[in-house]
């Protein structure tokens, strides 16, 4: 057991001799800390830059989507308006047809080219 203690202490002593002193650790720590700070700052800057790029990309795409939706809505409105006019015209034609069928059409409603009907 005594030989085991000696080898342990020999390694401990050697470790102390090879390691840096406290002042060296402080200098290394600040250097390492400085590098860590620089790395963190660079990562932060890159994150902000990426966020700005992402924000402008999303804003650009949202604007394009809004424009497309507006154009689609306008086209739909025009189509609905034309369809409403067609329905109105067809209903008017049906109304006139029914009037003529039942003999309820007035003189102003009859076409001038039709010969008079005698029954």
UniProtKB/TrEMBL annotation:
Basic and acidic residues biased stretches: 1-29, 43-52, 68-82
Region (Disordered): 1-119
Protein name: Uncharacterized protein
């Amino acid at each position: 057991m005594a030989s085991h203690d000696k080898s342990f202490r020999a390694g401990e002593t050697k470790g102390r001799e090879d390691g840096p002193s406290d002042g060296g650790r402080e200098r290394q720590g600040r250097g390492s800390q400085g590098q860590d700070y620089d790395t963190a700052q660079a990562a932060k800057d890159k994150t902000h830059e990426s966020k700005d790029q992402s924000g402008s990309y999303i804003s650009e795409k949202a604007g394009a989507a809004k424009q497309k939706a507006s154009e689609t809505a306008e086209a739909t409105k025009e189509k609905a308006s034309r369809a409403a006019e067609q329905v109105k015209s067809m209903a008017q034609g049906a109304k006139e047809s029914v009037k003529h069928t039942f003999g309820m059409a007035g003189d102003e409603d009859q076409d001038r080219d039709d010969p008079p009907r005698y029954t």
